[in-house]
């Protein structure tokens, strides 16, 4: 019997078949470096964006903090002023109650001056009045000087007008009731009579 011969493969044909199989892609060193650089650039861009956001948030928080500090300082100073004002005028009600007593003493002095029998009484009442006024001065109370001065509606109230040949018009010629300030604040205006000038 004849053995079937296995057809031999042509070496050239075998080589051609082998060339048809795609080889796996092989990147060079330059290509890998480019990819790594691109990834690094993307990561850096993301980091920069996050950093910018963080800086904006920090600036916003800093601004809020500075405003809060300023508001707190303003409030602290306001409270301090209110406390000082309260302490400064805490005695005002007492002084307002005391001043009419001084008025009565002054009226008693004026009424008794015309009598010789009351001379010693006048001296005693004047001493008491002087002592009270001194105490008031020590606590910041001052009498408003208005006599022979132009009438000032900010410190005085006019209760009458009287003609006066020797005094110009609108000048105070008589103090009916003294006015007072307490630590610079008007607590009672002076009641005065004002000149009309020469009688026409």
Please outline the helices and strands.
Blueprint: H1 11-19, H2 29-88, H3 92-112, H4 119-138, E1 141-143, E2 156-162, E3 172-177, E4 180-182, E5 185-188, E6 190-195
Parallel strand pairs: 2-6
Antiparallel strand pairs: 1-4, 3-6, 4-5
Helical proportion?
55-70%
Number of helices: 4
> Which percent range describes the beta-strand content?
5-15%
Distance between the ends: 176 Å
Please, how many domains?
3
Question: How many individual β-strands?
Answer: 6
**Spatial shape:** rod-shaped
N-to-C SSE series? HHHHEEEEEE
User: For the report, how would you describe the main beta sheet?
Assistant: 3 strands, antiparallel
Low-confidence stretches: 1-7, 12-28
Oligomeric state of this protein: single chain
Biggest β-sheet: strands ordered side by side in the sheet? 1-4-5
Average predicted confidence as pLDDT: 79
Structural class: alpha+beta
CA-based gyration radius:
52 Å
What brief labels describe this structure?
alpha+beta, 14% strand, disordered N terminus, 4 helices, 3-stranded antiparallel beta sheet, 3-stranded mixed beta sheet, 200 residues, Nucleotide Exchange Factor Grpe, Chain A, domain 2
Structural features, described:
- Strands 1-4-5 form a 3-stranded antiparallel beta sheet. Strands 2-6-3 form a 3-stranded mixed beta sheet, with no helix packed on it.
- Helix 3 packs antiparallel against helix 4 (119-138).
- It has 3 domains: 28-88; 91-139; 142-200, Roll (Nucleotide Exchange Factor Grpe, Chain A, domain 2), CATH 2.30.22.
- 8% of the residues are buried.
- With 200 residues, the protein is an alpha+beta fold.
- It has helices at 11-19, 29-88, 92-112, 119-138; strands spanning 141-143, 156-162, 172-177, 180-182, 185-188, 190-195.
